[in-house]
Amino acid sequence: DAGITQSPRYKITETGRQVTLMCHQTWSHSYMFWYRQDLGHGLRLIYYSAAADITDKGEVPDGYVVSRSKTENFPLTLESATRSQTSVYFCASSLGAQEAQYFGPGTRLLVL
Amino acid sequence: SQKIEQNSEALNIQEGKTATLTCNYTNYSPAYLQWYRQDPGRGPVFLLLIRENEKEKRKERLKVTFDTTLKQSLFHITASQPADSATYLCALDIYNQGGKLIFGQGTELSVKP
Lengths: 112, 113
Known about the structure:
The complex is a heterodimer of chains A (112) and B (113). Chain A is mostly beta strands. Helix content of chain A is 0%, strand content 52%. Chain A has no helices and eleven strands. Chain A is globular. In chain A, 37% of the residues are buried. Chain B is mainly beta and 113 residues long. Helix content of chain B is 0%, strand content 56%. Chain B contains no helices and eleven strands. In chain B, strands 2, 4, 5, 9, 10 and 11 form a six-stranded mixed beta sheet that branches. In chain B, strands 1-3-8-7-6 form a five-stranded antiparallel beta sheet, with no helix packed on it. The interface between A and B is medium-sized, with 27 and 23 residues.
């Protein structure tokens, strides 16, 4: 019963580097989401996907790229990492548009 | 723009008492409202979902109310236990926007034995 997994769990990178965070779910949920969580801002939606090959922007999409070629995977790429992207990133999935969301364990990213 | 406010102060209560957490929102009419629990270093865990046409929802020791006139949800934990200590997040489910959730910043609950 894997559920939803994220990798890596911890990542240190340098400004300007490209970084990809992986998210995989085994429930065949249609919807998948990427959030970042920062002190003082709470959880903020970066991108979400309603199905394979369908993605849309959330509240804070700038500097991020997503893709969803398979239902179970939803990678998040930081094209050129900046210090302001230091955060904890959570992936989530849900069965439908307005259903409970199930979160992964998070990836802690530090951009130096 | 949407704004969600939860108890800004941490809530400290004695074991066995009822904890009541507040979630107020403005400038919006959500079709759903959800509550999540988050422990340090972990992802949020879904607890309850309540729809706009439901006044109250219960699950074991948990109860959620949803007053669309007051634009407020109350989250109650009865017979609280130290294991209930965590941060509780409310989230508005934006109607017709594909499950996009707007989260409050959370209320930290501490239950003392």
